[in-house]
Amino acid sequence: MPRHPRTLAATSAPSSGQQRLVDELRRLGIDDERVLAAIAKVPRHDFVDDALKNRAYENSALPIGHAQTISQPYVVALMTQVLLKGRKPQRVLEIGTGSGYQTAVLAELVPTVFTVERLKSLSEQARRRLSALHYRNIHFGYADGMNGWLPYAPYDGILVTAGTEAVPAALVQQLAPGGRMVIPVGLQGAQSLRLIERRGAGIREADLGRVSFVPLLPGKG
Ligand code: SAH
Q1: In angstroms, what is the span from residue 66 Cα to ligand 1's centroid?
Q2: Is residue 6's pLDDT more than 50?
Q3: Domain containing 196 — which CATH number?
Q4: CA of 2 to the centre of ligand 1 (A)
Q5: What is the model's pLDDT at position 8?
Q6: Is 71 close to ligand 1, i.e. is its CB under 6 Å away?
């Protein structure tokens, strides 16, 4: 049985814009072929408004309304690559569904994806979009992601797509033993991407360099 019951884009070749983006990500150091194949497959133009479709394959974050952005493809690729390095996570939790683009990239690579968004309209739009693209391995939650998503915990991987001042304790607790979280820590201007690995009772933390994400906001919007 195929691991991902999705066929739509499987047969369609990447557009020239998509291929240029993949080449650019390769030049920037993304070297996990699984991740590059997912970027080549997911139609990013389906995740932005009509007025921005001609910029969908630029390596930049773009506005998605509600003062939020679809993440920069390089950052999506980097976070996914770090999450997958040397392993095959089965269940991954994403905090900050937003447009659903990072969710789709994860859904190409991981058997089951859980994604939580605090803004109802974004959550519903992403759900519709990903359903139209025939993704069937994604669970959508509408809640404050700082609390993680307890009923489905623990997760082999957690990916946070908005910045926090400190790593939320609930997220660390919902990591499976040996599980890995990638999260931007610090507020805008002084934010760095951190890799956090759960090791027995403790955690191991590594700094992956500067990033710039919109802040994680408390409560439902
Ligand atoms: N992965 C998304 C990134 C969207 S930007 C994409 O590529 O499109 C960050 C998202 O996090 C926004 O949609 C924002 O509404 C959401 N967010 C902010 N605070 C949150 C919280 N506490 N819980 C869940 N989602 C949150």
Answers
A1: 10
A2: no
A3: 3.40.50.150
A4: 30
A5: 46
A6: yes
Ligand 1 atom nearest residue 100's Cα: 8
Which ligand 1 atom lies nearest to the CA of residue 99?
8
Query: Does residue 192 form part of some domain?
Result: yes
Residue 187 lies in a domain: yes
Total domains present in the chain: 1
Phi first, then psi: give them for residue 106, nearest 5 degrees.
-65, -40
- Mean pLDDT for 182-198 is 92
CA distance 35 to 38: 5
Q: Is residue 218 part of a domain?
A: no
pLDDT digits (tens, 9 = 90+) for 52-103: 999 999 999 999 999 999 999 999 999 999 999 999 999 999 999 999 999 9
Q: How far is the CA of 207 from the centre of ligand 1 (A)?
A: 21
Q: Which atom of ligand 1 is nearest to the CA of 101?
A: 7
Helices (H) and strands (E) in the chain, counts: 6, 9
Using one digit for the tens of pLDDT, what is the confidence trace for 16-43? Answer: 999 999 999 999 999 999 999 999 999 9
Structural domain containing residue 111 = 8-211
**pLDDT of 50 over the 70 cut:** yes
Residue 139 in any domain: the answer is: yes
Neighbour tally for 214: CB within 10 Å: 18
Using a cut of 0.90, tell me whether the model's pTM lies above it: yes
Tell me what pLDDT residue 26 has. Answer: 98
